[in-house]
Fold:
Amino acid sequence: MIRKPVPLSLLYSTTGPYAALGRDAVDGALAAVAEINNNSSHSFQFEPSIDDPAGNAERYAELAETAIRQRGCRHIVGAITSWSRKEVLPVVERHGALLWYAFPHEGYETSDSVIYLGACPNQHLLPLFGYVMPRYGRRPFIVGSNYIWGWEIGRIAREITEAAGSEVLAERFVPLGSEEVDHLIAEIRQKRPDFILSNLVGRSAQAFIRAYAELREEDAEFSADRRPFVACNLSEIDLADLSPQAKAGHIVTNIYLDRLDTDENRHFQARLAARRGNDRPVTGPFVFAYMAVSVLAQAIADAGTDDPDLIRKVVTQRRFDTPIGPISFDPRTHYAGLRPFIGRSDSEGGFEIFETENLVVEADPYLVRSIFPGKPDGHAPRSGLKVVK
Structure:
C-alpha cells in the first residue's frame, strides 16, 4: 500500500533564549512521528520539517508562511511563547491551516485555526494560588519575561491577590532571555514577600532560580519552606543544569510531570524507554508536543484526510488517548480539558506530586466561570483541586 505523505511543520526554536524547551518539544513531536510512521495500519505518513525561528518572534510568521505555501503544510505543531503564537495566528487563519499549540498560556484568545492543548489560567494559575496562598501568605512578588505571557499572567495574579484582600508587593520584568536578575534579588530581599511568582522563560528562569538559591543559602528567611519560588510554566528541563540546592523546593502547577503515577504514563514511558533509554526525565514540553502529533494522527485516521476543516470537526467530537489520560476539546473554544497537579521539586530536579481530585478541569479561557481562590466570601476554586496537607 502506498501511504499518503502528510507534510508537517514543527515550528519550535531549537536555538536562542529558550532553546532547551524547543529541543525537548521537537524530540517529543518526532517521537510521535516515528510511532505513527512505523505503524503500517495507517494510510498516511508524516513528512516532518523542523523550522527554527531561533527565538525571534518575527521569524515565526515567515517560517509558517513558507511551510504552508512552499511545502503544502496544512498543520503546524509549535510555537512556545504567546508572542510567537500571536505571530503565527494570522498566517494560519489566512491560509485555512491549523496551529497545534501545546504550551501553557494566558488564555483570552480563541480561534478556529488553533487547537489549544496547553493549559490556560483556570487550569494552572488558579490552582497554584489556591494552594500557595493559604499556606504561605497573600503578598506575592511577581517576576516575568517582558512579553504577553508575563504581562497577562501578572495581571491575573494581581486580580487574584486583590480579590483575596491583599496586594502584590512588586511586579518586575526582564527582557526575554536576559540573565540580569541581581536587582530583582536585591528588591526581594528588601521587601520580603510571602512567595515569588515567576513568569520567566528559558535562560531567564534558570538565572533567577540560581540567584534565588544563593539568597536562600545566605538568609534562612528565604528558605523554600518560608518564601517559595512558584510557577505554572516550570518543568524538569528548566532545572536540568542547576545545582542540587538550586533545584529543590519550588512549587509548580503542571498538567504533566515525569513522576505522574498513572497507567497511561507508565505505558507511555515504557515505550519511550525501549527506544531512547530512561536516563533522562520525560517533560511537559516533550509530552505535549507528542500529544499534538498523536491527536492529529488519530483525527486523520478517523477523517480519512488531513483537511483542516474536517480535522477540526473530528477533534472536537471525540476523546483521544494520551499519556495524561483521555482528553477532549471544547467545540466552542478548541481548548482541551486538563487535570492539573501541584508538585514540589527536589534536589534531583524531579517533582513530588500532591494528590488532586480525579477531575478534569474544563478550560475557561476568559475566566467567566471561575472563582478566584482566597476570596473573602470563602468560595473554593472551581478547579476541583484537593490538596493533601
